[in-house]
């Protein structure tokens, strides 16, 4: 059929007074362009039919696989092979005398075919990744790094195959020639190689998942992991900035992952207030009676007082001197009050560690630390719970004849100086 079409075009050319040789060249070019146009037309028709069918099927089933196949243009790229196949099979018949052009077209067709197959593989890998991400397991075992490596290998093979087509050599010979450049390739692709190793280790050891809250001070990262790639991990910080961390850095350097806190029963509160050591004292009977009016420590004071009285009596201790024997202190009752207050707080997880402890005294006073876990782990709620607790603590400290230490400000020092001057004037 192609030969008849060419013969017809040659006759037409001869009628226009072209020589047979010139008419033949023109006829073969027109035949090739006709085949090219037909192959493109068939491509668009095939693409239209397949896309219509797949879109209809997608509406009917709402299947994630079909949706991903459509969005990643798998069938569209498969249709791109139609022109390639038609041209490759008809180029020789369409241009029997134009051997150089024929050879050039076949080489271009092969290169195009290799590229299209690579793009199809790229789309299929995207579909696999999308389907995998639809499962809950993908959050703990992301495969984006693996998918990127497979794409990288596919495109490397694509380049090598194109080189083989251009040089008319076997792929094995190309690979042997590239062996001498292995050191250069290792240097050029160092980051992808290290990233691939890092992503595998992160996944196998379950060190990082999308959605984890991590802190990496060196890289100024403090936020949620939003992407784990081949060479980089993206972290959206709490100020909405994005920090990009090399994947391998998460293996070679230390970082803090707050996932354990998120999966546990509570979020830790470990904050202290500093009590002025000058305000710590033994409790007098009047103080004890006053403190007993605080419901949370009423029973504690009574039980403790009975225990101390029994101890002192059994050991024949002279209690007329404050130094002798055992006595209750205002800071001890204050600690007991805080413990009971925390135990009665419904916003704390009482199945986890809960205590009020005294830390090592410093030049600023005596630190009293609240160590507990909030039941709500969401950041905003956690901060509100913690703040409410310490609002109450700061307000209740003076009720135990204690004072929170605060470093004197310039205004305080100035007012004390003015007060001293006024006292001198009145003498």
Describe the structure.
The protein is of the alpha+beta class. The chain folds into 3 domains: 2-204, no CATH class; 213-263, SH3 type barrels (Roll), CATH 2.30.30; 267-281 and 329-411, 2-Layer Sandwich (Alpha-Beta Plaits). The chain contains 18 helices and 8 strands. It has helices spanning 2-15, 20-61, 64-71, 74-79, 81-94, 99-133, 137-140, 144-167, 171-179, 182-188, 190-204, 249-252, 259-263, 285-291, 295-314, 330-343, 379-396, 410-425; strands at residues 213-216, 221-228, 232-237, 242-246, 256-257, 267-275, 355-358, 366-374. It has a 5-stranded antiparallel β-sheet with strand order 4-3-2-1-5. A 3-stranded antiparallel β-sheet has the order 6-8-7, covered by helices on one side. Strand 7 and strand 8 (366-374) form a beta hairpin. Helix 2 packs antiparallel against helix 5, helix 5 (81-94) packs antiparallel against helix 6 (99-133) and helix 15 crosses helix 16 (330-343). The protein is rod-shaped. The protein starts with a helix and ends with a helix. The relative contact order is 0.06.
């Amino acid at each position: 059929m192609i030969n008849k079409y060419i013969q017809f075009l040659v006759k037409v050319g001869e009628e226009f007074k072209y020589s047979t040789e010139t008419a033949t060249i023109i006829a073969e070019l027109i035949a090739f362009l006709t085949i090219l146009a037909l192959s493109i037309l068939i491509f668009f028709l095939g693409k239209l039919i397949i896309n219509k069918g797949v879109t209809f099927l997608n509406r009917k089933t709402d299947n994630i696989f079909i949706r991903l196949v459509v969005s990643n243009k798998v069938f569209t790229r498969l249709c791109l092979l139609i022109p390639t196949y038609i041209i490759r099979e008809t180029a020789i018949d369409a241009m029997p005398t134009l051997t150089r052009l024929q050879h050039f077209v076949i080489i271009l067709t092969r290169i195009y075919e290799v590229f299209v197959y690579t793009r199809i593989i790229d789309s299929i890998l995207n579909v696999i990744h999308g389907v995998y991400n639809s499962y809950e397991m993908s959050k703990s075992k992301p495969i984006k790094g693996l998918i990127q490596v497979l794409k990288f290998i596919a495109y490397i093979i694509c380049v090598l195959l194109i080189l083989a087509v251009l040089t008319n050599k076997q792929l094995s010979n190309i690979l042997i020639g590239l062996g001498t450049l292995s050191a250069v390739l290792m240097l050029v692709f160092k980051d992808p190689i290290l990233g691939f190793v890092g992503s595998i280790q992160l996944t196998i050891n379950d060190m990082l998942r999308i959605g984890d809250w991590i802190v990496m001070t060196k890289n100024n990262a403090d936020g949620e992991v939003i992407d784990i790639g081949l060479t980089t991990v993206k972290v959206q910080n709490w100020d909405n900035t994005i920090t990009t961390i090399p994947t391998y850095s998460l293996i070679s350097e230390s970082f803090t992952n707050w996932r354990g806190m998120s999966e546990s029963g509570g979020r830790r509160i470990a904050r202290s207030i500093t009590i002025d050591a000058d305000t710590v004292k033994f409790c007098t009977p009047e103080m004890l009676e006053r403190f007993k009016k605080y419901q949370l420590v009423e029973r504690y004071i009574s039980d403790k007082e009975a225990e101390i009285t029994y101890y002192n009596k059994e050991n024949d201790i002279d209690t007329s001197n404050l130094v002798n024997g055992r006595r209750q202190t205002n800071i001890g009752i204050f600690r007991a009050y805080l413990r009971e207050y925390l135990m009665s707080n419904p916003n704390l997880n009482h199945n986890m560690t809960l205590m009020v402890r005294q830390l090592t005294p410093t030049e600023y006073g005596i630190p009293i630390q609240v160590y507990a876990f909030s039941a709500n782990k969401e950041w905003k709620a956690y901060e509100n719970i913690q703040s409410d607790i310490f609002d109450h603590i700061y307000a209740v400290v003076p009720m135990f004849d204690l004072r929170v230490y605060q470093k004197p400000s310039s205004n305080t020092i100035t007012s004390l100086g003015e007060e001293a001057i006024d006292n001198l004037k009145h003498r």
